[in-house]
Amino acid sequence: xxxxxxxxxxxxxxxxxLNIEDFDDCIELFKDNEVCRFLGVDKIETPNERCKLxxxxxxxxxxxxxxxxxxxIEKNTNKIVGQSGLLVREIEGKQxxxxxxxxxxxxxxxxxxxxxxEKCKNFAFENKFTExxxxxxxxxxxxxxxxADRNGMRKDKTTEFKGMSVTIYRxxxxxxxxx
Length: 179
Prior knowledge:
Distance between the termini: 29 Å
Shape: globular
Order of helices and strands: EHHHEEEHEHEEH
Number of helices: 6
Radius of gyration: 15 Å
CATH topology of the domain at 13-131: Aminopeptidase
Helix content: 25-40%
Strand order of the largest sheet: 1-2-3-4
Mean pLDDT: 93
Number of strands: 7
Structural class: alpha+beta
């Protein structure tokens, strides 16, 4: 499956593909209404339905070589801390590759988002998947903006994406090489 980081590792994290057995761990993410608003699944009524849709979308991405978020396992505890990965997206008629992540509530503010997105960035550029990477961030998601900044990305533009006002953050491979 192209664009997935299955088997990749960082200092504290292991990446693997999402599987149906992860449902009970991942549902915690979909109990947070603000996160669901940022992910665009807030109109779906229950956390169970939100998580089910998320799994279906991820499995569909895997099947169609459109990337997809990988499960993040903390090496020291062997616990799931969230998801992160590369997603093929169409933005304003142009195909882009997005660095995406979702960290479970109890593991936020511990650097897992920054660590996993840096790995995604390096993996994409080292494998020459694209000349630039983006992150699509809801305009009110300040924490994700900080993660993008720490990952060397810069604000590119503000636009509409799936009915939401978002800021597109971007980094080019030439900027990555010079860091």
